[in-house]
Structures are given as structure tokens and as C-alpha cells.
Amino acid sequence: MRKPIIAGNWKMNKNAAECRELVKELLPKVKDAKCDVVICVPFTDIALAAELTKGSNVKVGAQNIAWADSGAFTGEISAAMLKEAGAEYVIIGHSERRAYFGETDKSVNARLVQAIKCGFKPIVCVGETLDEREGGKTETVCKTQVVGAFDGIDAGAAKDVVIAYEPVWAIGTGKTATDEQANETIGYIRSVVEELYGKTVADAIRIQYGGSMNAKNAAGLMAQPEIDGGLIGGASLKAEDFSIVVAAAK
Ligand code: 13P
């Protein structure tokens, strides 16, 4: 049995005061969660969020990680810095990074290799655009992204990586994939993992859905057999909404 994981992706939202308020409101609401609960906060909130969640069941993640240990990489943040600040998880290859910041399967792979080497729990994002879905390319795109991300990573490490299937057309649009669409594509992604690593890893790896997942649709999505959790954007910015999503993951 795979333990579900609900992760909030705050994206570029919440200053320190807002972080403090949200985390304080969230902790009591999710303290009895049956799933893993993570908040992936802006870099500047990591240390504060780590301090506020200390001793609780809520873990803290970052939204990116550099592939190099240190050096001349303006604007990047290293594994050691993230670890020192208190991040345990890290989102890698989010579609917003791919679309706006030139992230490629190759750079996603390099970041994933570094995250694993440095002991992080990575959440790797894959997913197709609307054009790609309408062009019948959903499976090809997801396969290319998964194969690219996991290049050179062995089975022992791969099974602990979380994959987030986030159809780009469902992100921030209010258009959720139907329960069946999400389940079907996640099932397909699991079959790609099986091709790469065999059945044991495919059965163990957790694959989340992301894209306008919220308090209203979480229960339906979570009832699907292939869906092991969610990566939540907008709905993670409100404690009440996020806690309802968390409660749907049993
Ligand atoms: P929304 O939940 O706002 O659609 O964002 C999803 C997402 O991109 C999480 O990483």
C-alpha cells in the first residue's frame, strides 16, 4: 500500500508574516492526517516554515534546487543551503519552470540527480499542454519527461521519488482533469516506471495529481486507484481548503 502524499505548492506567494499566519492556522487542522503533508514554500519562507512546523507532521519543501554544489550560478540555490534552511522535499521540473525559465528534461534530470545525492525527497513534475493532449500526444510527452528525468537514476533511489502528473491545461485554470483522465494518465506513467525499473518500483512509487485540485474535487480524485495524492497550488494558500484536501487523502 502506498501512503498518499499531499503537497502544497505556494509558488511565489506569502511573505514571512503571511507564512506564519497560514502555517499556524494549518497545523491543528491537519494534525491527524493519514497522509504525508508537505508545504513547498518560497525560498525566503523555508527557515521560518521549518521552525513553525518543527515537531509536527507537516514537512517543508523548496520549489527548485541547483544541480551544482556551489559556485557561479546567479539566482540558483544549492542543496546545502536548502538543507540548512530546513527543507526536506523539493519540487523539480514544474511546468512553470519549464515554460518560463527554460527548464528542460536534461536540467530536470541534473537537478533530480543532485537532490537524490544530497538526501532530499524530490517531487518531479510532468504533464502535457492542451495542444499536446488534443494532438493525442499526452502519453508520448509524459513518457519523454519521465524517461528524461530519471536518466541514470537507479531503482533504489527511483522508488522514493514522488512524481506529480500535472496537465498544464489544468494548472491555475479551474479546469481539473476528470477523475478518470487523471487516473488513466497516472496509470500510464506507472507503466513507464515499470518499463524502466520493473514492477516492484512501479508498485511502490507515489504519483500525485496536480492541476486545480481543491476542496471540492479532492475526494473524487483521491478515490481513484492510481492517484497517490496531490500537488496543490491555489487551494494550498488557504488553511481551510488545504486541510480538506489533506483529509480526502486516506
Ligand atoms: P493549481 O492547484 O493552482 O492549479 O496549481 C497546481 C500546481 O501547479 C501545483 O504545482
What's the helix and strand layout?
Layout lengths: L4 E5 L6 H15 L5 E5 L5 H8 L4 E5 L16 H7 L3 E4 L2 H6 L4 H13 L3 E6 L3 H5 L3 H12 L5 H4 L3 E4 L13 H19 L1 H6 L1 E5 L7 H5 L6 E4 L6 H10 L2
Parallel strand pairs: 1-2, 1-8, 2-3, 3-4, 4-5, 5-6, 6-7, 7-8
Helix pairs in contact: 1-2, 1-12, 5-7, 7-9
The structure holds 1,3-dihydroxyacetonephosphate.
Question: If you had to describe this structure to a student in words, what would you say it looks like?
Answer:
The longest helix has 19 residues, at 179-197. It is built from twelve helices and eight strands. Helices cover 44% and strands 15% of the residues. With 250 residues, the chain is α/β, with parallel strands linked by helices. The protein has helices at 16-30, 46-53, 79-85, 95-100, 105-117, 130-134, 138-149, 155-158, 179-197, 199-204, 218-222, 239-248, and strands at 5-9, 36-40, 58-62, 89-92, 121-126, 162-165, 206-210, 229-232. The structure holds 1,3-dihydroxyacetonephosphate (13P). 1,3-dihydroxyacetonephosphate binds next to strand 8. The site of 1,3-dihydroxyacetonephosphate (13P) has 14 residues, from strand 8.
